[in-house]
Amino acid sequence: MSFTLRTMRATDLEQVRAIAIASPESPQWQPSDYAAYLSPENSTYNPALLRTALVAVAPNPNTRTPEEKILAFAAATLLLDGAQNLCQLDSIAVRPETRRQGLGAALLHTVLHWAAQNSARHFSLEVRAGNAPAIRLYQRLGLRPEGRRPSYYTHPEEDALILGTPVTAGTPRTQIGTVFHHENH
Ligand SMILES: CC(C)(COP(=O)(O)OP(=O)(O)OC[C@H]1O[C@@H](n2cnc3c(N)ncnc32)[C@H](O)[C@@H]1OP(=O)(O)O)[C@@H](O)C(=O)NCCC(=O)NCCS
Question: Which of 27, 35, 119, 173 has CB atoms 3.0–4.6 Å from 113's, for a disulfide?
Answer without folding.
Answer: 173
